[in-house]
């Protein structure tokens, strides 16, 4: 049963974030602090997970993916409520929960200062990326499941990432490792310049792909058939909720967490393919992604860590992915590697010997 329940850890991590945001004050940092300790500490202390159990009850593994949208929605509504001031009480949340637990949540919220709200934004951004975007990523590959694709798009709307389900599935996976892939980081490219290049070029690519799809179907690009336009509308729904809660300050908090979530997502792209190359005529192989089998990262990210296997077989569900211990390996788990990326000189120093080893094994001429 442990092999099933390990994928529910992210739900346990989102709960203290919601509670901390509602309690106000310095409690608003609670979620991020717990997330950092659990994920970084877990990766450091636990052994690698290279197990490949045969799962009988796969619905248990599907459930946390479909719980993602309601959980992320509760998190975002909590953040929106926390952005209010005075007697404002979005949806009556403060009065209802305050009466339920005999605690004046509105008074506690009104005593929060900017550094407290910063903690809430950071905690929310990390969970929108780690749970929302990641579950959305898994669901985006269910091309024949319209419900899953819709859930995916709503999850990605929380980070204003309308292009993801188009560019990632139909662009990145076919072009990974080539010069045409915006989501493959080049050698010597730092994460900050990559963020802007990947974001802009990925968005342009998504528009091209979507317009091409609509053209083939003979549909207008300016109607509800356009998934880019409806994706923007989904994000505007969130903007509307935050504006209703606290006006421009609420919108600022939403955009702050969305920007952080988007930066986290693009940094993960950066980590997963940095410096690796592939000729366009070559099949996508395990060596075209950086892999890691760090246990805690694998559990909270639905085995996204087995990225070499995911790119080799993108249509299979996350619980069937192979660990590929012989594939190129990241230096650390995902969250630790993320922080390493933020300091480019250290990143280059750590990755240079790994790239030299990759060249000696896999580099091709032409």
TrEMBL record:
Gene Ontology CC annotation, any one: plasma membrane
UniProt key word Cell inner membrane: yes
Residue ranges annotated for the Fatty acid desaturase domain, each copy included: 114-336
Residues passing through the membrane, by range: 7-23, 29-47, 59-81, 229-255, 332-351
Cited CDD domains: Alkane-hydroxylase
One GO term (biological process): lipid metabolic process
A GO term for molecular function: metal ion binding
Primary site of residence: membrane
Keywords: Cell inner membrane, Cell membrane, Iron, Membrane, Metal-binding, Monooxygenase, Oxidoreductase, Transmembrane, Transmembrane helix
UniProt-annotated location(s): Cell inner membrane
Membrane-topology annotation of the record: Multi-pass membrane protein
Keyword Methyltransferase attributed: no
Family classification: Belongs to the fatty acid desaturase type 1 family. AlkB subfamily.
Descriptive protein name: Fatty acid desaturase domain-containing protein
Organism the protein comes from: marine metagenome
Taxonomic placement: unclassified sequences, metagenomes, ecological metagenomes
